Amino acid sequence: MPVYEFIALTNAGKKLKGVIDADSLAAARQKIRGQGHYPVECRETSAKSAAGAASLFSRQLHLGQPIRQQEVHIATRQLATLLGAGIPLVPALNGLIEQTGNRVFKTVLAQIKEAVNEGNSLTTALADHPRLFSKIYINMVRAGEASGSLDVVLERLAEFGENQHAIRSRVKAALLYPLFMAVVGVVVLFLLIAFIVPSITSVFEGTQQALPTPTVVLIAISALLKQFWWAVLIGVVAAIAAGRWFISTPAGRRRWDRLKLTAPGVRDLSIKTASARFSRTLASLLQSGVSLVTSLQIVKNIVDNVLLADLINAACGELEKGSSLSQFFRGNEWFPPMLVQMMAVGEQSGALDKMLAKAADAYEKEVEAKILALTSMIEPVMILVMGVVVSFIVVSILLPIFEMNQLIR
After folding, report:
1. Residue 357: pLDDT above 70?
2. The domain spanning residue 358 has which CATH number?
3. How many CA atoms lie within 13 A of 364 on its CB side?
């Protein structure tokens, strides 16, 4: 059934935009009038244009109204509730369309409903929007449709997405204040050195006195920042861009990922973060009925580390030969012993998904606690660094003044 975008006027004279499905343009206008609105403009939206809109909005580049992942999680939970209540899929999707306020998301849902109406599975309809629905999402829905438990799988998907969103939100909130302090500190020091220090050190230019080394260094840094601040800014931006380019190359990404897994201070956090992500995603896929090998092929793409992805890919090959997951990972320095032990217990008891979920709970709490501890350390370190820099500036200014006083005496 075609989908139409429309602009209509309400009884109060307000402009209303929306999406509606109908057999024809005339039927669409009649349907709009049946809702008590006067259609001003109505045009058909093709599947291709809707998919393009979903792609643009999922990248948050379209007219300031992106499709946020939180909206997808809410829609997933609502669809699970409707299906759990015994409502068929197409009417349930129609209910989602009516409840959704985001115009572009409404269009995407309408296209999904149209695809299902034409006889396609929900998995096939979702796969037309890969930027909005991840491989994990699509594969879990496929397993739910195959097992006849789509409502349960959608409920798990909603919980999984909301849990991941909550973790990211807490981490961002913990990092926000230190980042703000760092930006303010850098700006204050730049203004101090580039504009305030020169007005003070200009007093020493008329004297024939040899200035102390710290003062000479401060004057040189101040002159450099004042005259060539643009070059410093370009250099910083260029260094960041070069670093990002290097990491985007295969060799650079491999070196960067190895550094994260081996560098002191970040090694433990990186390994536990990857372990939490691996355990949580694999547990969710297994609980939804996805096979172990297929689940691992999906998980390797979300661990955000090419070395771990290669290791998981090798594990898939060993599983096909008859080896167990815990046996393959046992003794590996990048998979914590507790995780491997819980894998072994899960394999022996036939409850691998439950053991992985428990491991994910434990590692997510550890990661959150470690991040909070690190962020609590950042503030005193920044204060110490700023104190050292300010002390250097003060000493560099006062030293020649003290020497002048001694010469006068």
Report:
1. yes
2. 1.20.81.30
3. 19
Any idea what the Cα angle at residue 307 is, between residues 305 and 308, rounded to 5°? 70
Give the domain range for residue 382: 158-409
Token pair belonging to 154: 């959608």
State the chain's mean pLDDT as an integer. Answer: 82
**How far is Cα 271 from Cα 356, in angstroms, rounded to an integer?**
16
Token pair in block for residue 105? 């998301």
Residue 33 lies in a domain: no
Q: In DSSP terms, which residues pair with 179 in a beta bridge?
A: none
Burial of 374 (0-12, 13-18, 19+ CB in 10 A): middle
∠ CA 156-157-163, nearest 5°, is 90
Q: Which residues are 81's β-sheet partners?
A: none
What residues form DSSP beta bridges with 17?
7
Each residue of 180-238: pLDDT tens digit?
A: 888 888 888 888 888 888 877 777 766 666 778 888 888 888 888 888 888 888 998 99
Is residue 236 one of the residues assigned to a domain? yes
pTM: 0.68
Total domain count, the chain = 1
Q: How far is CA 18 from CA 42, 58, 105, 144, 195, in A?
A: 10, 19, 11, 31, 55
Residues forming a β-bridge with 8: 16, 39
DSSP run (H or E) holding 336? none
Nearest by Cα to 82 from 67, 68, 98: 98
What are the phi and psi torsion angles at 42 (to 5°)? -150, 125
CA distance 295 to 133: 16
Radius of gyration of the chain (CA): 30
133 occurs within a structural domain: no
**Range list of H helices, 148-203:** 150-191, 197-201
The rounded Cα 3 to chain-centroid distance in angstroms is 32
Could you tell me if 290 and 139 are in contact, meaning their C-beta atoms sit under 8 angstroms apart?
yes
> Up-side HSE of residue 229: CA atoms within 13 Å toward CB?
10
For residue 269, being part of any structural domain is answered with yes
